[in-house]
Amino acid sequence: MSRIGKKPVIIPQAVTVEKKDRCIKASGPLGQLQMDCHPRIKVKIDDSEGKILVENKHPQNRQNRQLHGTMRALIANMLTGVSKGFEKKMEIYGTGFSVKEQGGKLTFQVGFCHPVERVIPKGIKVNIQTGATRGNEVPSRFTLSGIDKCLLGQFAADIRKIRPPEPYKGKGIRYADEHVRRKAGKAFTSGTV
Fold first, then answer.
1. Band of the pLDDT at 191, cuts 50, 70, 90?
2. Crossing angle for the helix pair 149-162 and 62-83, nearest 10 degrees?
3. Count of CB atoms within 10 A of residue 155's CB?
4. What's the pLDDT tens digit per position in 12-62?
5. Integer Cα distance of 45 and 19 in angstroms
6. Other residues' Cβ atoms within 10 Å of the Cβ of residue 55
7. pLDDT score, position 192
8. Mean pLDDT across the stretch 175-185?
9. CA-CA 20 to 30 A from 21: which of 34, 40, 53, 66?
10. Where are the domains of the chain?
């Protein structure tokens, strides 16, 4: 049995959950999300206690055990998204590196000979705190927020992939809470032979 899958999902106060066949729809103050459940996993909505129970009909099957915890986590993320939302804070390090928002696109200047653009997916908001870096010490900062955790995480990963942080000076795009392991550069010795 999955330890995560066995835990009931508590429905937040301002959220309503409906189930039709395999489709689960959650609506709350921030918006509405829906998801199709896997046919091997059974989902019960207990409105009287305000809980959602995810059941595994065949716990001896390995794939069923894997799906059990996954479905429970996806449902919990959906309820958190429509009630509180999710956000990813990102930073850009490097002299002259910058980010700006124009017409539904994010434009990055990250050391290439051309600006790199990424279309902002529907349902994701971008808040730029610091547009351009100041030297190597003060990074450019921006925050991505939305109700769909999968979409938000994928968009943040696509942005990071443009210019991942390099290990020598730490230049590049990274998550705000990410630790970049640094390497020492080549040390040239000046001396006689």
1. low
2. 90
3. 22
4. 988 999 999 889 999 999 999 999 999 888 999 988 888 999 988 888 888
5. 8
6. 14
7. 58
8. 89
9. 66
10. 3-83, 86-175
Distance in angstroms (rounded) separating the CA atoms of residues 135 and 92:
11
Which H or E run includes 189?
none
CB 82 within 8 A of CB 147: yes
Q: What is the mean pLDDT of residues 130-146?
A: 88
User: What does the alpha-carbon distance between residue 107 and residue 18 come to, in Å, rounded to a whole number?
Assistant: 39
**If one looks up domain 86-175 in CATH, what number appears?**
3.90.930.12
Nearest 5°: CA angle at 116, between 130 and 159? 65
Model pTM score = 0.87
Within 13 Å, how many C-alpha atoms sit on residue 163's CB side?
Answer: 22
